[in-house]
Design brief:
It contains 13 helices and 9 strands. By secondary structure, it is an alpha+beta fold. β1 and β2 form a beta hairpin.
Length: 373
């Protein structure tokens, strides 16, 4: 498309003024800046300017600083990294894949050993890792993800420093040191560390009535009661157990009984708390059940070695990140997974094949705790 700007005597050749790159250029005020510079040119400067392509060349070059969606590219050619007008809202911890945490860890270790604990801007490959990571996620996740990866990087370096100092308290950066991979690797790893409540496999490997027709809260309650029955005994009435001592999955099940207290398939933290109390009152089980809104006390309760029922808006296909939707659901938390700065719950989804899921994403609405007295 060609376009003539009145009064400037310059015609655009081969510039699509309807493109998002051109519009972004205009919105940022760069186009008006070009015109202002032209207005101040002497005739000699204008002649040289036109000889080297004039406004067409300037605009074409500037448009290359934007992607096809009109988003500004950074020095590495990656869009979505412009912080203009965003304050510090992007400086928040978010999920970063283990692949890139490990790449950053390996790079920090390699460069720490290579440079004897010093940083060398001439040889570092950290920018390559950041760029590769940024291109691996959607544009809206790049700022916070990069910031999070930087926090991991800083923590990895601090761990390397601490590992060397623990072996040689007199060591200073720049001095050679024992480069034992085992010592450095064992001191700090990019891989997640999982912690579980005692006997967690009673939940992970449980046989339980199927979660059908949105009975997830009651399924989770079955898992909780079954856990305590396996650990302490005398929690579940024998009428709900098969000949092997497992929960019945057909006929009159424990879930059917719990549903009779709740009178509805849907539930949240308060509903299941009351259901558990009603069950314990009828069958003479001495226990305490409480509920909380939001994620209050959930991690602390798991840290006290007790499972928790968690209600919220969670991924509907855990593990299949690219195709995820969200669903209102109840899960049973029985452990935590910590990688550097981030700790997540390990849960049983109440679905076949999803008994050990690291809860990645979602919004917690409420929870139910239960413990024998």
């Amino acid at each position: 498309m060609s376009m003539n700007i009145s009064g400037l005597g310059n015609t655009y050749n081969g510039i699509n003024t309807n493109s998002k790159q051109y519009k972004a250029l205009k919105e940022k005020g760069w186009l008006s800046g070009i015109m202002q510079n032209e207005a101040m040119m002497s005739s000699e400067e204008r002649m040289i300017y036109e000889t080297f392509g004039g406004r067409d060349t300037i605009i074409n070059n500037l448009m290359k600083q934007f992607d096809s969606e009109g988003d500004l590219l950074n020095a590495n050619g990656v869009a979505g990294m412009d912080v203009t007008g965003k304050g510090t809202s992007w400086q928040q911890l978010t999920s970063v894949s283990e692949e890139y945490r490990q790449k950053m860890f390996d790079n920090v270790k390699r460069e720490f050993i290579q440079e004897n604990g010093l940083s060398n801007g001439d040889t570092t490959k950290r920018s390559d890792i950041f760029k590769d990571y940024q291109l691996s996620v959607s544009k809206d996740k790049r700022l916070s993800g990069t910031w999070t990866l930087e926090q991991y990087e800083g923590q990895y370096r601090a761990a390397m420093y601490a590992a060397v100092k623990s072996a040689n308290p007199n060591w200073k950066p720049g001095q050679k040191f024992d480069t034992s991979v085992n010592r450095l690797q064992s001191h700090f790893s990019a891989r997640a560390t999982n912690k579980y409540i005692p006997n967690y496999k009673y939940i992970k490997n449980a046989i339980y009535p199927a979660n059908e027709n949105n009975t997830c809260g009651y399924t989770a309650a079955c898992l909780i009661l079954n856990y305590w029955h396996k650990v302490k005994g005398n929690v579940i009435d024998s009428s709900f157990l098969d000949s092997n001592g497992n929960l019945k999955t057909t006929g009159n099940t424990l879930q059917d009984k719990l549903l009779s207290y709740g009178k509805s398939n849907s539930s949240w933290g308060l509903t299941i708390r009351d259901v558990l109390i009603d069950y314990c009152n009828e069958y003479g089980v001495a226990a305490t059940s409480t509920y909380y809104v939001t994620n209050f006390d959930i991690f602390a309760e798991v840290g006290r070695n007790r499972p928790v029922i968690v209600f919220g808006y969670f991924p509907d296909s855990p593990g299949q990140v690219q195709s995820r939707g969200k669903v209102f659901h109840a899960v049973t938390a029985y452990g935590t997974s910590t990688s550097g700065l981030v700790t997540k719950l390990i849960v049983h989804y109440g679905w076949s094949g999803y008994s050990h899921v690291t809860l990645d994403g979602g919004l917690v609405g409420s929870s139910t705790q239960f413990v024998l007295n």
